[in-house]
Amino acid sequence: MSKPDDEKKYWLDEPKNIDKVFYAVLILCALVAVPDILSLLNILYHKHIEFEFENIFEFYSLYGLVCYVGLVLIAKKLRNVLMRDEDYYD
Amino acid sequence: MIEGLNPGFILIFGALLVPFTNGIIRSILLLTLPVLALAQIYTLGLGTWGQYEFLGLSIELTRIDPLARIFGTVFCLAAFMGMIYALHVKDTVQHFVALIYIGSAIGAVFAGDMVTLFVFWELTAISSVFLIWASRTERAYKAGMRYLIIQVSSGVILLGGIILYYQETGSIAFNYIGLTGLASGLILVAFGIKSAFPFLHNWMQDAYPEATVTGTVILSAFTTKLAIYTLARAFPGTDILIPIGGAMTVFPIFFAVLENDLRRVLAYSLNNQLGYMVIGVGIGTELAINGTAAHAFAHIMYKSLLFMSMGAVLFRTGTIKASELGGLYKSMPITMIFCIIGAVSIAGFPLTGGFVSKAMIQSAAADGGMVVIWLVMLFASAGVMDHSGIKVPFFTFFAHDSDIRVKEAPKNMLFAMGFAAFFCIGIGVFPGLLYELLPYEPTYHPYTAGHVITSLQLLFFATLAFALLMRYKIYPPELRSTNLDFDWFYRVPLKWLALYTGRLILIVWNWILGIANNIVYSVINTTANTHGNGKILARTTASSTAVMIIVAVLGFVVVFFYRFLQQPVPM
């Protein structure tokens, strides 16, 4: 369980590489957002939809982003009400 | 093999051999039994066996149809996987009860009537609690007790429902029941307890994280999926299940965000996944039931994989609290890879199990025009991405380096994780193989451009949200804590109510006892005052005095009555 002093440096130990991961996520998001732009211009990709609102530009992307942020923020508020000490029941 | 033997019995009878074996023979026995059970399922094929008349009831010990077969199949695979994972364990009790537990879960799936179902149903409850108690801690003992009370109650309610149902219909065959009255309502509640319906769910989050490293992996696969199977058989198309399932997909994800114990996070996540299956049963169309069965199959694989990876971390580091872990990718890289495979599968990335199974339920909701539940499920999918897709691997293997340096997980654990990972990816890449096992004709095609793109959009933008929240330090930190859930009601107020009721009964009892004592004392005192030594009624007097009194009385009587009788009696 001890950490040797001469341990090799890992790629993620470098703070600027964490930035690189962040930018990689941004690029991936930009890539998966492209089909909706194509669909808007009516080239290559056509949405097959079940509900009308799926036609909203980048519906799934926005829904994912908003839900996620909403979930975390609400949970954070709930923590004020629900959180107790670790040995609360003991 | 015996013709028509319920495959569950192979594990149950096999368990009886466990105490007489050890070492390599024990290991071979543990790994062979699930394989034999699986072979039994497929050599028997479809049909019914073992019909008996018992006290006027038609018992049907074995019934294999496509719905039972897919659950039985995945149970055997999960048993095999769990046994590999537990090979290093040298605890006879755990091996024995695990086999009884798995055997009774498989037995229940293949039960053709409700009495057989009930027997196996209770057996799963009683055997499984030993996997929790095997931790041998005070916490585990108490959690196990609560678990046992709730599980056995489920069985008692089921029995009540079965008796009423038999009175109404004269049949105990386990087929479609549908919610029609009290009898079916009780049966639904019994199934609902084990499926972890909202407010009936806390036994799972309470007890599963307290079980042993291997026990949790085994527990997570069977009880709840058995309940989903029974719902799918008895209550398909029951409308009330749709909102219930919807609530199940949503509320646990908030707790999963806050929870610090990562095995408890996975228990909340399990609850959320069951929600999709309950919605599928509630919709009840062929596509939805197919979706439920497929999702149960895929879910057992990725959920076991996640529990196994967290179990390996607990086994090596001695803790499973997110606040104490981090940076483990340096010392447990293979476990990390398996954990991430489980995480992307549960999140439903293309080419994984979750992608090809969950989508069927989502699609069935869309076919039925159910906008609200469709949006709820989509919200929950973003939530799954958070707690299981990102939180579990991120805070264990990345985040801040906890400076914990340990060995990689034991080989048997890695092998079991590899087995599950193989299925997670295999189902995603070749969904046709899973679809062939489904109860109805598979009509769904998961790999359309639209489905792949919309899934990736949802999941990548959810990931982006996480990245942003972390970067700007908005994401709530992992804290050592207990988060209040519904179990608070029976662990605090109900407990106090019980204690105070007990105290009140004691006070009333003492009061009644006091009054009774007083009465007895006063009787004794009065008696002592009159009949006691030297008291008036106990005084000894001379016999001459007594004779004088008697003569005086006699004299009085004689004179009085003589005078009285002289008078003529007026008529």
SSE inventory with pairings:
The complex is a heterodimer of chains A (90) and B (571).
Chain A: H1 15-40, H2 59-82, E1 83-84
Chain B: H1 7-17, H2 23-44, E1 47-54, E2 57-64, H3 66-85, H4 92-109, H5 114-133, H6 138-169, H7 182-194, H8 202-207, H9 213-234, H10 241-258, H11 262-283, H12 286-317, H13 333-347, H14 353-367, H15 371-397, H16 411-429, H17 431-435, H18 449-471, E3 482-483, H19 487-491, H20 493-531, H21 543-566
Antiparallel strand pairs in B: 1-2
What does this molecule look like?
The complex is a heterodimer of chains A (90) and B (571). Chain A is mostly helical. Chain A has 2 domains: 9-46, no CATH class; 49-85. In chain A, 56% of the residues lie in helices and 2% in strands. Chain A contains 2 helices and 1 strand. The relative contact order of chain A is 0.06. The model of chain A has no long low-confidence stretch (mean pLDDT 84). With 571 residues, chain B is mainly alpha-helical. Chain B has a two-stranded antiparallel ribbon. Chain B is elongated. The relative contact order of chain B is 0.08. Chains A and B meet through helix 1, helix 2 and strand 1 of A and helix 10, helix 14, helix 15, helix 18 and strand 3 of B.
Number of beta strands of chain B: 3
What amount of the residues of chain B lies in strands? under 5%
Q: How many individual domains of chain B?
A: 3
Enumerate how many helices of chain B there are, as a single number. Answer: 21
Structural class of chain A: mainly alpha
How would the global form of chain B be characterised? elongated
- The beta-strand count of chain A equals 1
Number of domains of chain A: 2
Distance between the termini of chain A: 29 Å
Instruction: Count interface residues per chain for the largest interface.
Output: A-B, 52 and 58 residues
What order do the helices and strands of chain A follow? HHE
Assess the beta-strand content of chain A as a share of residues. Answer: under 5%
- Low-confidence segments of chain A, ≥5 residues, pLDDT <50? none
Globally, the shape of chain A reads flat
